[in-house]
Design brief:
Elements lengths: L4 E6 L4 E4 L1 H11 L16 H15 L4 E5 L8 E9 L5 E10 L1 H23 L3 E9 L5 E9 L1 H7 L11 H4 L5 H13 L3 E7 L4 E9 L4 E8 L1 H41 L1 H27 L5 H29 L6 E4 L1 H11 L1 H6 L3 E6 L6 E4 H16 L11 E8 L4 E8 L6 H6 L16 H11 L3 E6 L5 E8 L2 H4 L3
Parallel strand pairs: 12-14
Antiparallel strand pairs: 1-2, 1-5, 3-4, 4-5, 6-7, 6-10, 8-9, 9-10, 11-13, 14-15, 15-17, 16-17
């Protein structure tokens, strides 16, 4: 072996023999020149090293073969030394033979390898993904029929729910007797064909989802890395459910808009007589004023002031008719205008104007008790008008128990709290029993015998709730009914309080 030193000493530690490699090593380590017959201990300058060497030599002189590794002198070389006793012809110990080899590079490589092993073992033990190494077992026909678990990390134990000592060294069929053949076949293909496979699997025992990758190693072995993706799968499922619910909600909102539109059209149809009467009034006035104007123009004497007055009145009646038509067009169009800052009293008065003909035709005494200086609301004004129309028309259709009394309807608006504004529509009709009052907001429920779709109050409640408010009824037989709704006040106005 290159770099191997050999020397022999007598029982007094004196040199009997040494090779050139030992002479060279002694010169480099201690700066000493060796002479035959001189003591080895005498050439070692360090007392500590001298004691160490003497202890090794003494053990050999005592009849033992000693193997030791040491560094000597100022160098970093590591020497592996074998000290053996020498015997004379009589079998007595006559000295010591020492063979030393420079193992510095070898130990460096071993230490580096050991450090790498420790590093990989640390990563192996502390990786969050489960890792297992297995060896495929084939039957006589060379078909994979089982596999043995060779190694597994701590994450595998935690994820699989099986202790390390219960699986390593055992076959999978010993650990999981009911393992499906398809899995053994899959892992066999990975190990024998060297083709990696990735897949998702659900473990019924742990009730968890895993994402796994299997890849080939050597000699029919394969490794499998897997991680728990249960939370990811649940999040994906929740997201999918949320998206489906969102789509369902959007569809439901569209259906609600469609139904609200149908209800408005139906309401306008039911109000046709009153609306026609309301439009006939300004149209009849326009016709009358136009006739008077023509007669004045045909007269010989000019009357400019009279004509100005007639034309002004004609214009006012035309504006009134136009306002009614615009109001109707706004109510019957399919899309509403969206949320805008609105005065609730203005909406109430607009509805009253629209239903003025019905009020007159049915001889209803309408009383408005609207609080002044109410905070403005953020509303879809067309939808809220639809609610007020439904509530007011519901009040107009009730019967009065005492025929001698005139039908009365009262509309109130007031601030019920700092956060909510309330509108109440009260009639002096016959009232409702508990069964009717509990069902009037149900879709397609109607107390009208021959007309009505039973959607008005149901849609009204949906509209109010979509605005963050509530709609309810208070009624007792013989005491009339009050339909009320509340709406939230604008937040920026609340902040000013």
């Amino acid at each position: 072996m290159q770099g191997t030193t050999v020397f022999c000493l007598d029982t007094q530690y004196r040199y009997l023999f040494c090779n050139d490699a030992h002479r060279d090593a002694s010169r480099k380590s201690w700066g000493a020149v060796i002479h035959m017959g001189s003591s080895m201990l005498a050439i070692i300058p360090s007392l500590e090293e001298r004691k160490l060497v003497q202890a090794l030599l003494d053990e050999a002189l005592a009849g033992k073969t000693v193997v030791a590794e040491n560094r000597f002198g100022e160098t970093d070389n590591i020497w592996e030394s074998v000290c053996s006793p020498m015997f004379n012809d009589e079998g007595k110990i006559s000295g010591v033979s020492v063979t030393s080899a420079d193992v510095t590079e070898q130990r460096r490589l071993e230490d580096a390898l050991l450090e790498r092993e420790h590093k990989y073992q640390y990563l192996f033990d502390n990786m969050t993904d489960g890792f297992v190494i297995c060896k495929i077992i084939c039957n006589e026909q060379g078909v994979p029929c089982n596999y043995r678990i060779l190694e597994a990390n701590k994450a595998y134990e935690a994820l699989a729910g099986i202790a390390f000592n219960d699986i390593v060294g055992k076959t999978v069929l010993e650990v999981v007797p009911d393992m499906e053949e398809s899995w053994i076949k899959l892992y066999g293909e990975v190990a024998l064909t060297h083709e990696s496979r990735s897949f998702e699997v659900y473990n019924h025992s742990t009730r968890r989802y895993y994402e796994s990758t299997a890849f080939s190693l050597h000699n029919g072995q394969f490794a499998r890395v897997f991680k728990d993706i249960t939370n990811q799968k649940l999040s994906e499922a929740a997201l999918k459910t949320s998206e489906e619910l969102q789509r369902f909600g959007e569809h439901a909102r569209e259906r609600e808009k469609e139904m609200a539109h149908v209800d408005r059209l139906n309401t306008m149809g039911e109000m046709a007589t009153g609306l026609a009467h309301e439009l006939n009034q300004p149209l009849a006035a326009i016709t009358t004023y136009a006739g008077v104007a023509l007669r004045i123009l045909n007269a010989e004497s000019a009357q400019p002031e009279k004509l100005r007055e007639i034309i002004t009145e004609t214009r006012q009646q035309a504006l009134r008719a136009g306002e009614i038509i615009r109001h109707l067009r706004r109510l019957v169009r399919k899309q509403t205008g969206g949320h805008v800052e609105t005065d609730i009293n203005h909406l109430i008065r607009s509805v009253v104007k629209l239903l003025a003909a019905d009020l007159r035709l049915q001889a209803v005494d309408l009383r408005l008790k609207l609080s002044e200086n109410l905070p403005r609301l953020m509303l879809d004004d067309v939808q809220i008008e639809q609610v007020i129309i439904n509530l007011l028309r519901n009040a107009l259709e009730v019967t009065v128990m005492d025929v001698a009394n005139k039908r009365e309807v009262t509309i109130r608006s007031y601030l019920s709290s700092k956060r909510f504004l309330r509108v109440e529509v009260t009639d002096n009709g016959s009232g409702m029993d508990s069964e009717v009052s509990s069902r009037i907001f149900d879709a397609f429920y109607s107390t009208k015998v021959e007309q009505g779709m039973g959607l008005g109050l149901s849609i009204s409640r949906s509209i109010i709730e979509a605005h963050g408010g509530n709609l309810w009824a208070n009624s007792e037989p013989g005491q009339g009914s009050t339909l009320s709704f509340s709406l939230p006040v604008l937040k920026r106005l609340l902040a000013c309080d």
